[in-house]
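Re: beginner question about structure tokens

> Can someone show what the tokenized structure looks like for a real chain? I only ever see the sequence side.

Sure, here's an example I had lying around. Input first:
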Amino acid sequence: MMALLLLYGEMFVRFFLVGLFAVGGGLATLPFLVDMGEATGWFTQLDISNMVAISESTPGPLGINMATYIGFQISSEFGTLPGILGAVIAPVGVVTPSVIIILIVSKILSRFKDSKYVQYAFYGLRAASFGLIASALLSVAKIAFLGSQEVISAESVNWLCLALSVVIFTVTVKFKKVHPILLIVFAAIMGIIFKM
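And the corresponding structure tokens:
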């Protein structure tokens, strides 16, 4: 019982920190999740790649979906009920900093919204957000296109996955009316057929 409580406490604190520093939404959480997986051994980069695929395919914010999944997975070894509690504690940890910050900012920002320093801070946050999302993109692309390979060579590249990415990107750009769900289903079917 004590081990489970310690796990819940560590889970809440780690996800609280992810929520505190991941400015820019769900994809911005990925570098922090990679770091968390390496520090704790709770999940691998391949697990993160799979979680991104599942979380992007299901309704709801990416960061919350991933936290829910991770919380359930790492605490379900203690049973189903502890797994469900873990699935609640992890996303609450991610969301709590945002709630606190929004409450504080709503009180303060109305007084300082026209301040040039506040505007500069927002510009800085945009840059940080872009950097975190770009880092997440590179992490996911590395796993998708190279798997566990560290060295880039013609043999290490998953050419089918790369071709599928190009096709989906092209369809998205050229045919804006195509619903994203159709592309997700198409990608899932291709992944099953070609065992990507």
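Each token stands for a local structural state, so reading them left to right follows the chain. Helices lie at 2-21, 30-40, 45-57, 62-75, 80-112, 116-146, 159-174, 180-194.
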